[in-house]
Design goal:
By secondary structure, the protein is mainly alpha-helical. The protein has one helix at about 15-30.
Length: about 30
């Protein structure tokens, strides 16, 4: 699944998406 979560500008989407994606997996597994 592709999670598109970003905070602020769309340009920062790529960077934040990587960090948020890891957080989402951790919460889902726990």
């Amino acid at each position: 699944m592709n999670f598109t979560i970003y905070f602020g500008n769309h340009e920062d989407k790529e960077v934040h998406t990587m960090d948020c994606y890891v957080d989402i997996e951790e919460e889902t597994v726990s």
